[in-house]
Design goal:
By secondary structure, this protein is mainly alpha-helical. The chain has two domains: 66 residues, no CATH class; 69 residues. Helix content is 61%, strand content 0%. α2 crosses α3 and α6 runs antiparallel to α7. The radius of gyration is 24 Å and the shape is elongated. It starts with 7 loop residues before the first helix and ends with a helix.
Length: 163
């Protein structure tokens, strides 16, 4: 008979899957699985490591994080679409998470640059959630590259004459 593998941190936190799910997504339409705010806070304390390991990625944070930790950092939930850029611009994300987001946003920026229409470029960047600070930085760098005249390569005779 095959044995079911258990994840020790999930088992060890003492929370049910429904409780973990509420820490991740917030209460369902039927209401909270917790009877009091104190029970919710206690569940966050016990399950924080598990919830963050499972769902704090891609520039997103669990709803319990927004409830219990974000206010102490002066942050308020900006809405689902704006969450990654909001956390990025406030330096809240882990290094590897930032690197992954930057790579994706850079691809989206380069894709937008292929579009002829400025409105279409802006809509694409908005859809992709590229932070405005990065848009300004990358656009300025792109303008500098375009403005720089190409330096002609020296002919072999000219190179030898200058030596």
């Amino acid at each position: 008979m095959a044995r079911t593998a258990h994840n020790s941190d999930i088992d060890g936190c003492g929370l049910t899957y429904s409780e973990l799910q509420e820490l991740w997504l917030g209460p369902c339409n039927g209401g909270s699985v917790f009877d009091t705010p104190e029970q919710l806070r206690d569940a966050w304390i016990r399950g924080r490591a598990v919830v963050m390991r499972l769902w704090a990625r891609g520039g997103r944070r669990p709803q319990a994080w927004w409830c219990f930790e974000a206010p102490g950092l002066g942050l308020t939930w900006p809405g689902y679409d704006a969450e990654p850029a909001y956390l990025f611009e406030r330096n809240v994300l882990e290094k590897t998470e930032c690197e992954q987001l930057l790579a994706g946003w850079r691809r989206d920026f380069e894709d937008a640059c292929l579009l002829e229409d400025a409105v279409a470029r802006r809509k694409h960047l908005d859809w992709a959630g590229v932070p405005h600070s990065l848009r300004r930085q990358w656009q300025a760098a792109r303008r500098r590259r375009v403005r720089q005249p190409a330096v002609p390569a020296a002919l072999p005779e000219e190179a030898a004459a200058t030596e």
